[in-house]
Design a protein that fits this description.
This protein is an alpha/beta fold. 56% of the residues lie in helices and 15% in strands. The protein folds into 2 domains: 16-250, no CATH class; 258-372, CBS-domain. α1 (30-50) packs across α2 (55-87).
Amino acid sequence: MATTSWIRPGDPDGGLRLFRVGNVPVLLAPSWWIGSIVVTALYASMIGQLMPGLGTLGALVLAASFAILLGASVLAHELGHCVVALRYGLPVRRLRLFLLGGISEVGRSPAKPAQEGLIAAAGPAVSVVLALVFGATLFVVPEGGPIWLLLLETTLANAAVAVFNLLPGLPLDGGRMLRAAVWGMTGKRGTGTRMAVVGGGVVAGLLLLWALLRLVQGTQDRWLWLGVCAVTAWFVIAGARSELVSELQRSWPEGVTLADLVRPVLQLPAESPVADALAAAAGRGVVLVRADGVAAGLLDEDAARRVAEQSPLTPAEVAAEPIRPETVLLDSDPNDEIAERVRTTAAWQFLVVDAEGRPAGVLRRQDLRAASTGRNLG
């Protein structure tokens, strides 16, 4: 499950930070409240019909308790993914609960199909265990009471979460397991992604078909099912498309070598006028070197243009982007490892060096992305 940086408390793109599990922040997205309110309202209505003697307030309390237990169950499901990912040494950027459930954003793709499969399977496994645990309590609590009904609904909800997530289509866990299986059999992750994306399309289509069937049958809850299935189908299709785009970006484009994409590198004194360094940079990467022979960084052309407009004689070093260990690539590294590094590192250009550490060129993220656009997965 995937993507970007640490989120500040209250970040609109992440939500309210609840707590941390180790170094992983757990966030509550604003849409979670909407989902919980809807669940509470619908469940309270159902309780009112099943247990009219409970009263409106009692029904609302029981319904809100179910919404909280459902959220906690989804959180446990996602923690299953997190724990296994961390055991494999994969960074987990955040865990987020939102309208349709939750997502664990793993910062780096698994290196082996077995890792992908086990990380994906961990979530549904937790949901199955929770369904069994809550189901077992049904034999202890007196049957027919409000607590028994709450435990029954939580049992069914966890079972439904497990079953739905095991459907073989991305971005669901079952889709990741399908990708891992095809990847393991063929040795090609891209082939697994393509099949799992098709599976996601089938899952979305079946959801809409189910909703339309209930609409034709004229069931009392037909409009509710239509809304839920339409939103879920959209989520599945959008997630599958995102996975396909991510696969294109993480894999090295076929028929292209590193030499085809690397721009020639030019070394200039760090005190060179920024306007001169910018003129020399046309189509090339520029390494700015101080008088003591230490590299000041790579010329950031956008920053250099802004500086040059105000003061063209300013030393180019002020527009240098630092060269960090993670932005240095060996020209002998496997292409897929280079693509993965570029995809997961917050930088727009990378210094390529030879085995002796000498600059061999500059690879820009946009050049690799352009080469990957429109190619077929294999």
